[in-house]
Amino acid sequence: MTISHNGALACPDPTPQERLLVTVAVQGAEYACSALTVEDLVEMTDPAHVIRADVIRDLLLGRHGELDPRGVRVSGARIVDRLDLDHVTAAAGVELLGCVITEPITVE
């Protein structure tokens, strides 16, 4: 995982799914990554349903432009890597519905 402290993107090469998440989040809509159940997402290895945690962090830090006040809303995704929200001050929140989070979320 790459953490940038100078305002650069932590994930400079987003996947097609991550690019779509960015577009949808900036517009204020929910990104429905899949209709899979949590049980299916636990076992799933298909990259089409994977979002890297750093992309969510970058969104909350405004590194993809101004975020809609409704925040980052994702459903049916497998969130990989640690979601590091330590010392993040965001103008909007994050909502992960029916998602599998493979590593801890840290918030200080």
UniProtKB/TrEMBL annotation:
**Highest taxon in the source lineage:** Bacteria
Query: What's the name of the protein?
Result: Uncharacterized protein
What organism does this protein naturally occur in?
A: Saccharothrix longispora
